[in-house]
Amino acid sequence: MTNVRFTDLRACEILDSRGRPTLSVTAVHGSRSATATVPSGASTGRSEARERRDGDESRYGGAGVLGAVDTVRTELRELLCSRSWPSLADLDAAMIALDGTDDRGRLGANAIVGVSMAAARMFAELQEVPLWSWLRVGDVEPRLPMPCFNVLNGGAHAHTGLDFQEFMIAPVAAATMADAVRAGAEVYAVLRELLAERGHSVGLGDEGGFAPEVTRPEDALHLLLRAIENAGYPAGPDGIAIALDPAASQFRQPDGSYLLNGHRHSSTDLVQRYVQMVRDFPIWSIEDGLAEDDLSGWRELTAELGDRIQLVGDDNFVTNAARIARGAKLNVANAALIKLNQIGTVTETLDAVETCRQHGYAQMISHRSGETTDDFIADLAVGTGCGQLKAGAPARGERVAKYNRLLEIASARPELPYGATEISAVRIG
């Protein structure tokens, strides 16, 4: 099938995992329907595609999305049902043109990406292939991704005294998807016991990780090391490594310094602190180690650690192909985080993945802090063959949905390769 004629488009306001409003969008083709629900971030880059929120303080503190729902039901429905669509790329381009802004602000990026995701599901269903297979990019082989589990939350995800936002465990030596998920769940359970024994809270942050009242990132790293070892795994390349998302834009000060657990750091100071962390701990990846607009700091970090570990750009790249290409020319990072709602359409997301490949950059598919049980990104990670996915802790329904979908795909297609690709399998510390 080449052309798809949609017969209806529906939307309603629902809640995400943080209790904030978001959209559910359903695309209809005759008797068939395909639904997608839209995530939302807390730690966001300034250049991300812009959500449409109502601003009505009498509903959800102004965070309602009835305007975005109305956009789907009216302008986007009229567009979708106006003609046959030979491809999702044609539909996404038409929605971008209809919006007419650089940031999707008129119609709302949350409205547009919901339609794009639902339409992608319908294209896959009508072609009678799994979504991951339909999302393949060129001749890239589909691959089950290594999961990175966010087991300790800080920063904008927890609002404790811990400035770094995410401390993740990555089962780099796992042989299968099932082994990787089991390792993540086992370390998570042991970490809970360890925190309780030491008198820490075992309350959870936005992404399901624990949110203890520790302030130094090094103290959090020591907790992870102990949990990994207590769970019976080697810490490092032969077992479970560590990935960080400091989200440095969140603790950068107006004067350009970084305020980290009460102490000011210059860009160089912070880079050298990362260098020491990599020496002391089995750190495999650092995401957003510098602020999105700290170009000189990013270049310094890349020069220091770019040949040793993975350095992931998120706030500075915002899943934007042009920004990723520019970063590559400026020797910034060696990988990019990929988020569907950050750029606004499935097609642009796939373009960002392809741009990474052209420039030798690794890719990590990512969830958002405000999630739903939609498991689209699990299929996206498999179909693009990127080899990496972060979807939060191995707990809470909206996070586990992604990992369970990967286990389903692995069970149905055991011949699929598993794990980080060669481009992302950089040396650990």
Automatic annotation (TrEMBL):
It is found in: Cytoplasm; Secreted; Cell surface. Pathway: Carbohydrate degradation; glycolysis; pyruvate from D-glyceraldehyde 3-phosphate: step 4/5. It comes from the Bacteria. GO terms for molecular function: phosphopyruvate hydratase activity. (2R)-2-phosphoglycerate binds at Q165, K339, R368, S369, K390. Residues 47-59 have a biased composition (Basic and acidic residues). Pfam families: Enolase_C, Enolase_N. Its cofactor is Mg(2+). The active site is at E207 (proton donor), K339 (proton acceptor). This is Enolase. It comes from Amycolatopsis silviterrae. The gene is eno.
